[in-house]
Design brief:
53% of the residues lie in helices and 0% in strands. It has 367 residues and is mostly helical. The chain has 3 domains: 43 residues, Homeodomain-like (Arc Repressor Mutant, subunit A, Orthogonal Bundle); 47 residues, Homeodomain-like (Arc Repressor Mutant, subunit A, Orthogonal Bundle), CATH 1.10.10.60; 241 residues, no CATH class. The radius of gyration is 25 Å and the shape is elongated. The relative contact order is 0.10. It binds a DNA duplex (21 and 21 nucleotides) through helix 3 and helix 6.
Length: 367
Amino acid sequence: MGRAPCCDKNGLKKGPWTTEEDAMLVNYIQKHGPGNWRNLPKNAGLQRCGKSCRLRWTNYLRPDIKRGRFSFEEEETIIQLHSILGNKWSAIAARLPGRTDNEIKNYWNTHIRKRLLRMGIDPVTHAPRIDLLDLSSILNSYVCNNPAAALLNLSNLLNSTQQQQPLVNPEMLRLATSLLSIKQANPEMCSQNYNLHQNQISNSQEQNNQVLPPLQSNDQFQNLIQGGDFSADMAKHMMQQINVEGFSPNMTNLGCPLSQENIFPPNLSADHHQTAVSQANYVPCSTTSGNPSPDYPENSYFQSFNYNKNHDFSFDSVMSTPYSSPTPLNSSGTYINSSTEDEKESYCSSWLKFEIPEGTLDISDIM
DNA sequence: AAACGCCGCAACCGCCGAGGT
DNA sequence: AACCTCGGCGGTTGCGGCGTT
């Protein structure tokens, strides 16, 4: 049985509200309070349906609504809550005083979502995007001191881009080639990182009394996925490794893909799924020094992307200011309005721009 | 100056669950 | 149990403003 419409729409006005209508609605609610939305428009003399009145009140006319730009703190809160709650905008709004679910939803869709996509982060899963999987296989080959395999993987990757949709965006390719060239220049560094990576995993397992061995390669991970025999324990195991590593443009970290679609099969419970996602993104990122970066607030979403201040590939090295901040704080603590989306974007993209040293790998040769 | 395209946001739509009859 | 109302939610749409050509 179909549900009856909330009101008789014949003769009722739709579209943008006029100031007169706003005034009528506000006056009525100030006298009688909100509620009984069905009868409210009739009593208030409005040619609107109750639903429209309620939306207008809750999303725009309510006196406690905070208007204007979202602060950096608000933005971070939204991202973190979204990673936990998903598209539960009302739940997110409940934790952001003065902001409505509609406003947060719009802000997410028009600003944050796009920014995360440009950063290579899946806005749904909050994990690095699927194309990093292929990138990781290239980098992993190099970690294993197999440049030939790396080049082969890269070649396959490029060939695949000639079919339908590109698997890797240009920034990812640039990152890949840059890292390859850096590896050529500093072979010891990478092996050190790899050893460190393995040590971290071992330490983590001791702490968690786990007996599962660390995944030795990206291939092993891929086999797990493709084999279909992927239990919740395995997923947990994977996420432990991710927790140890955090996420950074570090080679070994990239060898551990985070895409949620791959990590969690449909039969994995939502609880496992959600818990793992939260852990993957928001545990404090381990660093070689063992200390979190002081450049970001503790537990900052963006701190998850921080690697190591002393490391050549640290995001810190290319970010002097939290790039997500829409309105950087000045000395008095007020927000500077001159910050533009372009400026924010430049922060985001800067840590993906690793210039290729001259005389190193030339992708055009492969293509 | 006009045309065009893009973007952001307010508003709408359809669905759902809770609660009442 | 069935039906209905109501409030709430998330997804989508459409319009106006703005920048670019």
